[in-house]
Design a protein that fits this description.
- It is a single chain.
- The chain is α/β, with parallel strands linked by helices.
- The chain is built from three helices and seven strands.
- A hairpin with a 2-residue loop joins strand 6 and strand 7.
- Helix 1 packs antiparallel against helix 2.
- The radius of gyration is 21 Å and the shape is elongated.
Length: about 160
């Protein structure tokens, strides 16, 4: 993550990052410390695969902790009271339908930042092809999103908080 880059998040997204950091700094650190202790008890560390694996896990954990701390430090929480639902925007919940697929059901997504993106659970990044295409669209408007799976024409059915 670039230094001093502002990370726009929802209040819920910031809370999840803080919870993950707490978990990593406590539970995960203790688990890896125990792995290291067991691996060291096997003796010769020069050819100890368990020790190498535990050290790799420890390095990955420390990297994620550093990343989370930077994200939290640079987080800017969107003020939900200032979100305008006249158009799709960061923090809005948008209902869309694919106009080229007659059998397509409505899809509902909340537009969030990249750190919160989870399309399977209805959280779509504002920087994703679909999210970026939807930003600024109004109810009834059709937008075109160029996705890895092809071009999608999506009609905005509803915008809410």
């Amino acid at each position: 993550m670039a230094e001093n880059k502002r990370l726009v998040v929802t209040r819920e997204g910031l809370q999840k990052m803080k919870e993950e950091l707490e978990y990593k700094e406590t539970t995960e650190k203790m688990r890896i410390a125990e792995q290291l202790k067991v691996a060291i008890s096997y003796g010769d560390l020069s050819e100890n695969a368990e020790y190498d694996a535990a050290k790799n896990d420890q390095a990955a954990l420390e990297q994620r902790i550093t990343e989370l701390k930077a994200m939290i430090e640079n987080a800017v929480v969107v003020d939900e009271s200032k979100i305008n639902t006249d158009a799709v925007n960061f923090g809005t919940r948008v209902t869309i339908v694919d106009v080229d697929d007659e059998d397509e059901e409505e899809e509902v997504y909340t537009i969030v930042g990249t750190s919160e993106s989870d399309p399977v659970n209805g959280k779509l990044s504002n920087e994703s092809p679909v999210g970026a295409a939807l930003i600024g669209a109004h109810v009834g408007e059709t937008v075109t999103a160029v996705t890895p799976g092809g071009v999608r024409r999506l009609r905005v059915v509803n915008i809410a908080l």
